[in-house]
Amino acid sequence: MPSSCDPRHAPVGDVDGALMVIDSRLKAVHDGKAGTDPEEQRLIDQLAASLDLQGVHDLLDGTCTLVYMFMNWLRRAHEEHDRDVIEYVVPSLVTTLRMMPRTVSPEAIPTMAGMAIAAGTGLSPSLWRRQYGDWTTEEMTALEATALLLAEHINRIAGDRDFATRLIGDALSRADEDHRNGTLED
Which residues lie closer than 8 Å to 75 by C-beta, 6 or more apart? Predict the structure, then answer.
């Protein structure tokens, strides 16, 4: 029986915008800065100012797409070593989110764990989350932190602090190329 959370039925959202935000946050973390680079922050602020309600939903869906893609990559990487992604990734994700009480509210952590588990089992995080109603402000911040932590986890595994960003960038480039060549459905 097909799942109502099948990724084929999920909105992709604004993956470019979500990736820009996550990449900016990753660079700030690696550069040891308390905040984001002023130029990158200006771009993020421009993006945020340009968003209407649909744009916010698209950005949330784009971030969920990142979570799905990151968990999919992590699942494959762990399977190569006969490990379960849920067992090895989700507990450290939850532990790290719990260590961020000023950024991530405790109430949002179970939702983020559920989204990561949904993605790790091949379900769409967007569709999984949608079944529980509207996003809360706390969940939006926690979603960004979750995507950031998953990207950083991938970067550590790969030994390359830009690997997760390139991974998504390459996938987007291939999708654009397939679309231009008519091999990707509209």
Answer: 85, 120
Question: What is the sign, positive or negative, of the torsion defined by CA atoms of 122, 182, 57, 100?
Answer: positive
Q: DSSP secondary-structure letter at 99?
A: T
Tell me the residue length of the chain.
186
Burial class (CB in 10 A: 0-12, 13-18, 19+), 166: middle
What is the tens place of the pLDDT at every residue in 140-183? 999 999 999 999 999 999 999 999 999 999 988 887 777 677 76
Determine what percent of the chain falls in helix, strand and coil, rounding each to the nearest 5.
70, 0, 30
**Residue position matching structure tokens 């990724």:** 7
**Per the structure block, which two tokens stand in for 50?**
């340009």
